[in-house]
Amino acid sequence: MIAKLLCLATVCVAACLLSLILTPPVRWWMCRIGAVDKPDPRRVNRVPVPRGGGLAVVAAFFGALAVGWAIWPELMGLTPFRPVLPWFAVASVVLVGTGFWDDRRGLPPVVKLLAQIVAALLMCWGGARLIPPSAWGNWCVSPWVYVPLTVIWYVGVVNAFNLIDGLDGLSSGLAIIATVGMVGVFFFVAPTMVPVASLAFIGALLGFLRYNYNPASVFLGDSGSLFVGLTLATFALITRRSDAFLVTMGLPVLCLGVPLIDTTLAVLRRTLRYALRRVEDGETASGVMTADREHVHHRFLALARGKQRLAVLWLYGLAAALVVLGFVTLGLREAKATVFLVGFFAFATVIVRAMTDVELWDAGRLLSRPGARCGRRSLAVPLYVLADLISMAGLFVALAFLLREHLPHLSETQWAAFFLAYAVPVALALVGVRAYARIWGRSTRKDAFLILLAVAAASLLSHLVLAYLLPETAERMRTFHILWAALLPTPLLLVRLAKTAFLQWLAFSENLRLRRRSQTDRSIERLLFYGAGVNLRAYVTLFEVNVTRNHAALLGVLDDNRGLRGRVFRDLPILGPLETLEDDPDLLARLRPTRIVVTTPTIGPARLGDIRAFCKAHGIALSRFSFSEETLDV
After folding, report:
1. For residues 325-345, b (16+ Cβ closer than 10 Å) or e, as one string?
2. Of the residues 29, 95, 117, 316, which has the maximum number of CB atoms within 10 A of its CB?
3. Cβ atoms within 10 A of the Cβ of 609, count?
4. Which range is most confident: 105-109, 440-444, 467-471, 583-587?
5. Residue 621 contacts residue 596 (beta carbons within 8 Å)
């Protein structure tokens, strides 16, 4: 035991010292060959900083392993990293060489992607494979399954650390935190093994972090970030255990949570913007690999008001919290599923919070854009289908859980077969009543009735078939079936009404955005309305319909009915009569309206004169909005 600890400590210290010694000459050399990050609008560094410092990390990692092998060959043989080390070295040469060339000359994204695929195939050939547990079925051990899964895993993790490398010390610090979590997996899988490669990697990154932390004097560069992603993806796979697959793969996923979230959001965001540009600009749209300044670290930097250290520490804390969650999962043997659910909801909260101002906004623009009906339909129909499947699965699982004491004992395979027997007829019936061909924003009671009819007919059919094939089981599941047929129409209808609610939320968010922008952008009008009635409702409806083309911020409503003061009309506060602004100069200064829109048709000439005088005194424009009907000659 003492020899093992001494080996681990020596390798870690050796890697740290090598990294501390090698980073300055690598930094000098990268400056000499011109591999320097110069400031531009997308980058956060304000002075030129050399990149390619990851070469020192690579050299320190392999140098520390060589030291450990020379002193303790018998202990080095116990590391689970040993069988894949030759293939890892070759894959590292491929990725580090590609990254170095990109740091020096620049490479197209497609070339880097091909290099990542080659490295992933090498690691898969060498034995580092993402193979689902055999308990899931014989199909899991097929190369047609595990080879694509392995390639997707490697490409995803490698790109995750390539994309997250945008702040001083961020990528190397997150890699250290993730590797600490991997060490915990090592001891869970096989306590007798020596995670010497993990300690060597931690030491190499710690030494490099001395120069990479804010203010950084050298960056990892692509040569370093690609190697970091390759190493962590390999650590996760070599600790995978088939009898504890979810834990031994779930914990590494939690350890890599922040970079994976960033990559997921980047793919979604760039795909949405590519689709938007195709709709707006035709074939001039840029590809989905176009870089942007909307990564998770950019958003945390904005929250930290440009303070890099604070943003990096927040991201360190988030990553550490996910690692702690993984360790708690290992400790609670009987509650692993519960802890993973907590982790999933934590992921969901972070993702949704990060998506609110960017990805969901772009999705709403694509769905609501006038004149792009074909694009909206092609996007909305798969969303409806996916939401229906999730609704049916959720209701099925909830009923099975609530009625478990009254249902027959079935295996997981039998439950899956029953779900298909219930869900497939409903899905076919929804297609039959053209539930996916309607524009549900214009739906009628007849459309809702057809949903009810489809669910009732399909449920009756599935129950008759089950009663014929399995009469005893069908009899015990009668209550389950009745509740399924009675409750299912509700989530199916709510899914179809969700788009309208989502677009209303989008209009509300757009109004908040316009209010903020109007503080500095004088081209955006700031509107107050006079009269809370039908005309105002029509105006707000037009605002929601044209949500992607608005150039006015809605501030609030003035109304002579004092009893309405303090209430809210379609998210707009009712401020009271005109005298409210006259008596409260601070409120007027805070609102700074540029136009008052009269939306009440019953306003008298005297009151209209008061409003006109007020607007003239404060330099505010005045207009009237109304719908009118005109009789035409026939």
Report:
1. bbbebbeeeeebeebbeebee
2. 95
3. 10
4. 583-587
5. yes
* Per-residue buried b or exposed e for 235-256, using 16+ beta carbons within 10 Å of the residue's own CB: bbbbbbeeebbebbbbbbbbbb
pLDDT of residue 118: 92
Q: Decide if pLDDT at 341 tops 60.
A: no
Q: Measured between alpha carbons, how far is residue 398 from residues 288, 343, 393, 490, 582 in Å?
A: 39, 20, 8, 14, 57
Start-to-end CA distance of the chain, whole Å, equals 101
- The whole-angstrom separation of Cα 561 and Cα 384 is 43
pLDDT tens digits, 357-398:
566 666 666 655 544 444 444 556 777 788 888 888 888 888
The pTM score is: 0.62
Average pLDDT of the chain? 78
C-alpha count within 13 angstroms, C-beta hemisphere, residue 101: 11
DSSP symbols for 568-622: EETTEEEEESTHHHHH-HHHHHHH--SEEEE--TT--HHHHHHHHHHHHHHT-EE
- What does the pLDDT look like over 411-439, one tens digit per residue? 767 787 888 888 888 888 888 888 877 76
What mean pLDDT is predicted for residues 142-152? 81
How many degrees, rounded to 5, is the angle at CA 482 between CA 480 and CA 486? Answer: 120
H/E element, 550 = none
- CA 512 – CA 154 distance, rounded (Å): 40
The pLDDT value recorded for residue 504 is 73
Q: Which two tokens stand for residue 81?
A: 């990293």
How is residue 348 written in tokens?
């969901």
Q: From CA 549, how far away is CA 562, in angstroms rounded?
A: 34
Neighbours of 26 (CB within 10 A): 25
Q: Are 380 and 367 in contact (CB under 8 A)?
A: yes
Residue with tokens 């590494």: 252
| Structural tokens at position 610 | 């008061």
Write down the residue that tokens 């997996």 correspond to.
Answer: 185
- pLDDT tens for residues 284-328? 445 556 666 667 777 777 777 778 888 888 888 888 877 777 676
The amino acid occupying position 361 is: W
Burial class (CB in 10 A: 0-12, 13-18, 19+), 588: middle
Rg (CA), the chain: 31
CA distance 571 to 540: 10
Q: At 103, which helix (H) or strand (E)?
A: helix 85-104
Q: What is the DSSP string of 29-55?
A: HHHHTT-EE---TT---SS-EE--THH
CA distance 231 to 198: 9
Residue-wise DSSP of 203-227 = HHHHHHHHHHSSSPSS--HHHHHHH
Tell me the torsion sign for CA atoms 581, 583, 585, 590: negative
Torsion angle, alpha carbons of 103, 104, 107, 109, to 10 = 10
Measured distance CA(231)–CA(466) in Å, rounded = 52
